[in-house]
């Protein structure tokens, strides 16, 4: 007998844009902290291991992945590099809302059709910053990310852009970020005070370890006792 399907409130489309502090107030301590993260990522890059493609994830939901992805993209673009921010959270996309873009087509089309990258990326008001929105919801995000098409796309992204950021779902909930972490040059973990849970962080570490991800470090934010005015820091 078919069970009556419960309505899952969490599946409701309730995503919101995130604050672009790096655009609104470039001289704020928080913007400065984003520039410090940019510097640290550059220092992690070397001639035999260039960091051009980066996954941003966290252990659980609502920890600031999209906030970090969007603001980091802005500061990288501000430095003159050609930057692409990809909304690789195909389940709960927000990037189009943050940058006020349409989302009729995007990353899901790139992976599931022969549509060209150049026809799908959109310009933003930030010079040098392009965005690839998520595109229509796909029934199989993990399969798309793990496909051979994804490998081709990565190759093309490396040729077309200086720096590519993938805004991903939480790594403990679904396998998408783990899959992508095994393919890109580096992974940045976002940890938010009072939101991130210790057990989930251990689990995230194990999941990243399993695929030999190159973990660049963690962005810790929301700290109440920050001593340096900003509330982001970065470390290995
Ligand atoms: N340090 C912070 N202090 C206060 N609010 C924050 C902070 N970082 C993020 N937020 C807010 O928390 C909410 C979730 O942030 P964000 O969308 O960046 O998280 P996320 O990890 O991408 O979430 P999801 O798992 O749903 O993709 C947003 O409304 C954002 O503005
Ligand atoms: Mg998000």
TrEMBL record:
InterPro entries listed in its UniProt record: AAA_dom, Bact_polysacc_biosynth/exp, P-loop_NTPase, Wzc-like_C
Taxonomic source organism: Enterococcus sulfureus ATCC 49903
The protein, known as: Tyrosine-protein kinase CpsD
GO molecular function: ATP binding; identical protein binding; non-membrane spanning protein tyrosine kinase activity
Pathway in which the depicted protein is active: Capsule biogenesis; capsule polysaccharide biosynthesis
Entry EC number(s): 2.7.10.2
Ranges of residues in domain AAA: 52-181
Pfam families (UniProt xref): AAA_31
Gene3D superfamilies membership: P-loop containing nucleotide triphosphate hydrolases
CDD domains associated with the record: BY-kinase (cd05387)
Catalytic reaction annotation: L-tyrosyl-[protein] + ATP = O-phospho-L-tyrosyl-[protein] + ADP + H(+)
């Amino acid at each position: 007998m078919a069970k009556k399907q419960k309505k899952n409130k969490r599946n409701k489309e309730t995503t919101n844009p995130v604050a672009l502090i790096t655009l609104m107030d470039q001289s704020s301590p928080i913007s400065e902290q984003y520039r410090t993260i940019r510097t640290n990522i550059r220092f992690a890059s070397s001639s035999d291991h260039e960091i051009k493609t980066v996954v941003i994830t966290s252990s659980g939901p609502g920890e600031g992945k999209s906030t970090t992805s969007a603001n980091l993209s802005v500061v990288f673009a501000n430095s003159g590099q050609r930057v692409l921010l990809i909304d690789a959270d195909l389940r709960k996309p927000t990037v189009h809302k943050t940058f006020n873009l349409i989302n009729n087509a995007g990353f899901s089309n790139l992976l599931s059709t022969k549509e060209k990258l150049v026809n799908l990326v959109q310009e933003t008001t930030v010079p040098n910053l392009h965005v690839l929105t998520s595109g229509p919801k796909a029934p199989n995000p993990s399969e798309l990310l793990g496909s051979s098409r994804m490998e081709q796309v990565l190759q093309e992204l490396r040729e077309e852009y200086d720096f590519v950021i993938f805004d991903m779902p939480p790594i403990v909930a679904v396998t998408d970020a783990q899959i992508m972490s095994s393919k890109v040059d580096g992974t940045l973990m976002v940890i938010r005070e009072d939101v991130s849970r210790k057990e989930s962080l251990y689990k995230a570490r194990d999941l990243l370890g399993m695929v030999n991800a190159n973990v660049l470090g963690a962005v810790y934010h929301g700290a109440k006792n920050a001593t340096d005015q900003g509330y982001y820091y970065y470390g290995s």
